[in-house]
Amino acid sequence: MKIRKAVITAAGWGTRFLPATKAQPKETLPLVDKPMIQYVVEEAVASGIEQIIIVTAHGKRAIEDYFDRSFELEQVLEQKGEEKLLREIRRISELADVCYIRQKEQLGLGHAIMITEALVGKEPFAVFLPDDIIDSHVPAMKQMIGVFERFGASVVAVEKVSRETIRSYGVVEPERVDHRVYRALSLVEKPSAAEAPSNLGIVGRYILTPDIFKSLRSVKPGAGGEIQITDGLTHLLKRQPIYAYEFEGVRYDAGTPLGFLKASVGLALRNPEVAPGLKEYLRELSTRDFKPPGKLLP
Ligand code: G1P
């Protein structure tokens, strides 16, 4: 069955990025020249997704405005003869067929996905977490759709993560079935390094069968007191297989200040408009002697 719909979860508080996210949705922070969420919308469209469901919450109106048309702005650009900008602004509002649902209480990622049931219906669907940005030749979701088509079961994206960071991830106990493909034997959310069943951390891309909704309804709050998608998957695993796919590409966790900086630099170095100037600046920086704050003056 074709994957036609995608859910993008954008309802979180952005606590890892406060205070920058106090009055601005994390998903609208710009990476190089466009908001973070546009990268995942473009990945979805490039993977053949036709309809996008964005889960928002209080304080996230800027996301809806961004993908909507802005007739006033278009008029101003038209009057100024800014043809290129005008085309770009229109392109953004025509990128995809987007609809929105609000998560009234932030009860967890699993809960955010659960409330999309009526919009998704009874078909397999994709899920994107917008602070995981994946830079790849073939869009990561398109790679995952290939795995879904082959095995006909839910697929989670994974990558090898360090012992020090494993506590931030859902982790898969894998049984290798092919190059980059594993069958999940179990899944655990945010384990300690000692408890982790492998070093394969789940990254924010999922293809889920609609049976996940029933599983999510039956799970109790888990790590952090939240309804976790990983716990929903553990429940689903009792009824059907789940695969883990180690995607090809570079993934950035743009949800923290350091990860966001890495994403900005990594993506900018691939952007022909800014890469030459940035490379020059990085060379210049590497020759400078940085001292901790407060010690800059002699
Ligand atoms: C969520 C998921 C986790 C996954 C991670 C990937 O956690 O619950 O399983 O590994 O995204 O980014 P969060 O980062 O929202 O705490």
Description of the structure:
The chain is an alpha/beta fold and 298 residues long. It has one domain: Spore Coat Polysaccharide Biosynthesis Protein SpsA, Chain A (Alpha-Beta Complex), CATH 3.90.550.10. Helices cover 34% and strands 24% of the residues. The protein has eleven helices and 13 strands. The strands form three sheets. A nine-stranded mixed sheet has the order 5-4-1-6-11-8-12-10-9. It has a two-stranded antiparallel sheet with strand order 2-3. It has a two-stranded antiparallel sheet with strand order 7-13. It is globular and about 60 Å long. The model has no long low-confidence stretch (mean pLDDT 94). The site of 1-O-phosphono-alpha-D-glucopyranose has 13 residues, from strand 11 and helix 9.
Spatial separation of the terminal alpha carbons: 67 Å
Order of helices and strands: EEEHEHHHEHHEEHEEEEHHEEHH
Number of strands: 13
CATH topology: Spore Coat Polysaccharide Biosynthesis Protein SpsA, Chain A
Overall CATH class: Alpha Beta
Low-confidence stretches: none
Biggest pleated-sheet summary? 9 strands, mixed
Quaternary state of the chains: single chain
- Mean pLDDT, rounded to whole units? 94
Binned strand content: 15-25%
Layout: helices, strands, pairs:
Blueprint (H helix, E strand, L loop, with lengths): L4 E5 L20 E2 L2 E2 H11 L4 E6 L4 H7 L3 H9 L3 H12 L2 E6 L6 H6 L2 H4 L4 E4 L3 E4 L4 H12 L2 E7 L9 E9 L2 E9 L10 E9 L3 H7 L10 H9 L4 E5 L3 E4 L3 H12 L6 H12 L12
Bound molecules: 1-O-phosphono-alpha-D-glucopyranose (G1P).
The site of 1-O-phosphono-alpha-D-glucopyranose (G1P) has 13 residues, from strand 11 and helix 9.
